[in-house]
Amino acid sequence: MSDDMPRYGQRSDPGAAPDCPRHPGVRAVDYCKRCHRPMCAQCRVPTEVRAICVDCARENRLRRTTRTPVVTYGIIAACVVLYLVGTVSQQAERAFVFAPVLGYEQPWRFLTTAFLHASVLHILFNMLALYWVGRAIEPALGHWRFAVLYLLSAVGGSAAVLAWCFVQPATWMTATVGASGAVFGLFAAVFVLQRTSGADTTSVLVLLAVNLVYGFIQSGISWQAHLGGLLTGLAVTWVFVRLARPRRGVTPRRQEQRAGMVAALMAVAMVSLVAGVYTLLLA
């Protein structure tokens, strides 16, 4: 055998190896089996089969310690506290409820109304749905992404209520409360996560269809908020999933930073959308 022939497991041209994204100028010796990024000897963490990079190893440690859906529990606690406050003081509750006529000068109502509920059954059903879905997808998305998804879906639901004023101007004075818009955003997130992972989405589609139809036929339910939260949740989750895909030469930390910047841009886009709707309505 010629001395020029590479042995089994060796590169035919060692100089063709890419640089380690964590140590520019240092040649990689392997690829992470999880994120598929190149890694140098210093960044290589052996496992039972092949190896992972230091970033994935760090992420594994963080995941083991952040499985508790603290954001979900925090939202439930906030909703329960505000419901109890509302039973004692209706004036305090009125400071947070949303109606299109109020949201123009008091924009915080777009979000705070998602923490209010009209009855015991209203808060019970919404909190049960939040508990079931939040415990499933918060660990998958991560705490801050889940919080962004929930908050933007809540605002998206209120924005849809506002936009309906183009069709039915009388709703300009109509108040809406409830976490349903945000919860529909979470249902949408389940669909996106299942779809991208190749899982069967039939059950979640049936659940969405039944709840949407029920909102249309039952009086006193803001189907506009449901639809707005659903569409917002679809868009936000799709963006987060796309940004989380491994890319060679980009470290997980850098991807996390990009996701944070994009989340801020989505929030700005939502605010701009609401401002645009008000501009057209009041023109």
From TrEMBL:
Q: Where would one find the signal peptide in this protein?
A: none
For this protein, the Enzyme Commission number is: 3.4.21.105
Top-level lineage group:
Bacteria
Top EC class of this enzyme: hydrolase
Q: Does the keyword RNA-binding apply?
A: no
State the annotated membrane topology for this chain. Multi-pass membrane protein
- Name all Peptidase S54 rhomboid domain ranges: 105-242
- Residues that span the membrane, as ranges: 70-88, 108-134, 146-164, 170-192, 199-217, 223-241, 262-281
The record ties this protein, via SUPFAM superfamilies, to: Rhomboid-like
Gene Ontology molecular function, alphabetical: peptidase activity
Which CDD domains does the UniProt entry name for this protein?
Bbox2
Q: Name one Pfam family in it.
A: Rhomboid
| GO biological process terms held by the UniProt record | proteolysis
The record's comment on protein family reads: Belongs to the peptidase S54 family.
- Please report the name of this protein according to its UniProt entry: Rhomboid family intramembrane serine protease
Name its species.
Schaalia naturae
